[in-house]
Amino acid sequence: xxxxKNIIYISIALIVFIILAFLYCTPVFTGKQLxxxxxxxxxxxxxxxLDYRADTGKETYWSDSMFGGMPTYQMGSRFEGDxxxxxxxxxxxxxxxxxxxxxxxxxxxxxxxxAVRNWKYALLGATFFGLSTYFYIIIAAGHNGKVNTIxxxxxxxxxxxxxxxxxxxxxxxxxxxxxxxLQIAANHPQMTYYLFLALGFLFLSELVRTIQKKTPLKHFxxxxxxxxxxxxxxxxxxxxRILANSEYVKETVRGxxxxxxxxxxxxxxxxxxxxxLMWSYGKLETLNLFIPRLMGGGSQEPEGKEMMNRIQxxxxxxxxxxxxxxxxxxxxxxxxxxxxxxxTSGPAYQGAIVCFLALLGFFFAWKKYSYWILSASILTIxxxxxxxxxxxxxxxxxxxxxxxxxxxxxxILVVIELLFxxxxxxxxxxxxxxxxxxxxxxxxxxxxVSGGTLGLILILLLFGKPLLGFYTENEKLxxxxxxxxxxxxERFKLFKIDxxxxxxxVAITAVALFMTLKHKLSQNIAxxxxxxxxxxxxxxxxxxxxxxxxxxxKIFAEQPFQTESSDLLTEKxxxxxxxxxxxxxxxxxxxxxxxxxxxxTHYRIFNNILGTFSExxxxxxxxxxxxxxxxxxxxxxxxxxxYFQIMDSVKVPNLLNLLNAKYWVVGGPEQxxxxxxxxxxxxxxxxxxxKFVNTPNEEIKxxxxxxxxxxxxxxxxxxxxxxxxxxxxxxxxxINLTKYQPNELEFKSQSKTPQLAIFSxxxxxxxxxxxxxxxEVPYIKADYFLRAVHIPEGNHRIRMIFxxxxxxxxxxxxxxxxxxxxxxxxxxxxxxxxxxxxxxxETA
Length: 844
Hints:
Blueprint: H1 2-24, E1 33-34, H2 37-45, H3 47-56, E2 62-63, E3 70-71, H4 83-91, H5 98-115, H6 119-130, H7 133-141, H8 144-150, H9 153-164, H10 169-185, H11 189-211, H12 217-236, H13 239-249, H14 273-276, H15 302-318, H16 322-331, H17 352-364, H18 367-384, H19 390-399, H20 414-433, H21 439-468, H22 473-478, H23 481-517, H24 523-542, E4 551-552, H25 554-558, H26 567-573, H27 580-584, H28 586-598, E5 604-607, H29 617-621, H30 634-644, H31 651-658, E6 661-667, E7 672-676, E8 684-687, E9 689-693, H32 696-702, E10 711-715, E11 734-741, E12 744-751, E13 755-762, E14 768-772, E15 775-777, E16 780-782, E17 786-791, E18 794-802, H33 805-843
Parallel strand pairs: 5-6, 9-10
Antiparallel strand pairs: 1-4, 2-3, 6-7, 8-13, 11-12, 12-18, 13-17, 14-15, 14-18, 16-17
Helix pairs in contact: 1-5, 4-10, 5-6, 5-9, 6-20, 6-24, 7-24, 9-10, 10-12, 10-33, 11-18, 12-33, 13-33, 15-23, 17-18, 17-20, 17-21, 18-20, 21-23, 23-24
């Protein structure tokens, strides 16, 4: 009977989650879709991949759409035999973003049912977690891989707790393995890495408990072995993805550095420290977990427009010289954000009630949870500070494996988004149900924590201006007093509203808990009050960052690169800031489309209007010199930093010729101009002169200076390649592209002498195979970042095919791992049922 009741309650909870998710995302009922910046960029960058898939029914693992060409492993490529990813797609069956919200709720509900085995607390905890503001901010931005990974945080932790705490080895193995596999399949290694930093404290906690003999050594060893096996199998189910990405990452900005200069060293790997620590959370800013606008909200919020309008009026009334105006302009940042980060889309608000209950939870929850959660939370916050706590950050960057592969330390606060709701739920459950906690202890802790919390809010309200400042150092330096005073006053008003709300929410919660202690309020009523107030709090804050304005007509979401303007288009876009870029870029898109339609050969476009290395409009229509991607190939990124940051009028055209930039798009968004580049080197060319250099620094410096149509810069380490290979000039020689697919290129050459062919294709040492007359031959790197091959005299057919061995190898490892998971799961369940039958027979 109890089992049937649980099934009913679980079903009701899942229905509640679906209703909540749909209520939050009501525009999906009318067929509208989210307009997400990063997904718009993805649609442009992945266009060639998607077209190839649609035309051939096959997959290409290389695309020339961005940055001169790169693997598609981080661009949405699919892997044959990727069963775990299919399971992920089945779980995400609801329309986006309803699917994300539902799985955030449901995943934490599973964790709650495992940890406290009570559906009411699991349901409440699920709303605490699933309504964390950070999730709504990243959904609005289009960080779908990130939120997809976070969906599986809670159920993965549930599986581990089943093993370590509940001693349910079989079910724990199944749950842990499944959600470990799904976690990796979601493909955001940074989020998974941060989660496992926190889970390390759970392992240490269990180890300490074993040493203290609170847990049997046998259980600890069995549990650790099961979890290790689960993680290995879960990773194994993603072998294609992991092997491909691990091979790829070595050649990217996350891998080994090549150049030696102030910010690079060939002995180091990963990004430079400045890039890693750029988005560091401020120490005081951490309190916006509790008060959302402690340091403002996002850099761009509606109140910011009103503030800017007033500032313009003040400037007109008070500024009398251009010099003063120039000084003032240096001081402006975001109107509605004044924290330590360069900018932000919004605060990592966890909820006033959740933070308050989390503080109580550290006193009320079982020690086997509270110690490791507190330790993990402290480390998370300290690491989020990044450059504001440089001693710890330096240690992790230099000594902790893989930490230097990731940027934006502020994003580690996702761990808090999991642990605070968890400890809040555990503490609340034990507060209401555990008789080991005395009435006096509960009352004392509740009095101290609620008094301290409310007192902190009052201090911030009374002394907030001198304590928090409400301005940045840059603003203080450049803005005159009349502007600085206005800014601080307006910002304090924003903070004050949220601080008062936090005071009210915490007070209501504290009173509800006190009243239950005095038996003047039932447990269920108290839970409903806490749940509803928390829901209102988080819901209203989240709506600042993900609301109806983020939804657009389906055509704009799926076809954001419009090429024709019209009154209807203007009418639909008007007033929606998310769509303004569509209208602004229409003329540029039309220009790009015209180029692509008139010249269907293979070449690249240099778009100097939209921000060459931060847009994918160009990639949508044709191969681009630039693009938008966080994991660029290292050599290409080096070239960007060396040449395109300064835009030298001689060197940059030389580089564009190397990259076969046949057309340049210049001017402005309203009147873009197309400039044909007759000097582009083409898809391939022969050189007869070789310039050997000793270091990568010499190599990259030389390519901007040489006549790259006749001379190639070659690393001295490749001298051996030319042993027994002659190179002689032939003015009549030619090499032409005869077939183009992103993963297969074919050329025809003719020469009276041996030649070195340089291809306008980015060098990548894995997966590319070179054939001359169907015989595979070795190729080398030339001009720092291109491919080259020696071609004998005569007529020849040259082919380049991208066939990464890791894909086939990974496929069989993935299938084997999934088969092992299924096999062990079935055997485990069979053994478990057998033991149950034996137990029944013994007691019969």
